[in-house]
Write a structure and sequence with these properties.
This protein has 145 residues and is of the alpha+beta class. It has one domain (4-138): Roll (CBS-domain), CATH 3.10.580.10. 38% of the residues lie in helices and 18% in strands. The strands form two sheets. The protein has a two-stranded antiparallel sheet with strand order 1-2. Strand 3 (99-104) and strand 4 form a beta hairpin.
């Protein structure tokens, strides 16, 4: 049985709560990513997604100099590196998320993305199922509050 440690990406672009939302947007643009883990040392504090920047940042009329702390998501799903790939796929499907931080003793070790499950042809059915559930949610109309 393959573990998350075997498929995770370890060279993660990270930010701190002191980085501002303009810097986060530039990190995302320059690295072609839409998800940045926020750390304090190696400890995972939360994540900022491109959607967080738009909804909690710019749409709330925050300037680019606003700190990441204003837009961070702290209630996040994580997975242990010893978890099976099947467990990670199930967690991603049930939480309808595309990226899952890999954390051990509170420290960020890497990220597992939905593509990592499919590209490596590991539990392709689970990756497909996870992506299917996520895509279904993306296609549903959402309420604007």
């Amino acid at each position: 049985m393959r573990t998350v440690r075997e498929i995770m990406t370890t060279d993660c672009i990270t930010a701190t709560q002191q980085d501002n939302i303009y810097e986060l947007a530039c990190m995302m643009k320059n690295n072609d990513i839409g998800f940045v883990p926020v750390v304090e040392g190696k400890k995972l504090i939360g994540v900022v997604t491109d959607r967080d920047l738009v909804v909690r940042g710019y749409a709330q009329k925050h300037s680019g100099s606003t700190s990441a702390a204003e837009v961070i998501t702290t209630d996040i799903e994580t997975v242990d590196p010893s978890a099976s790939v099947d467990e990670a796929a199930h967690k991603m499907a049930s939480s309808q998320i595309r990226r899952l931080p890999v954390v051990e003793n509170g420290e960020l070790l890497g990220i597992v993305a939905i593509g990592d499950l499919a590209i490596r042809e590991i539990f392709a059915d689970n990756a497909g199922e996870a992506l299917s559930h996520i895509s279904e949610q993306d296609n549903q109309p959402s309420a604007v509050h």
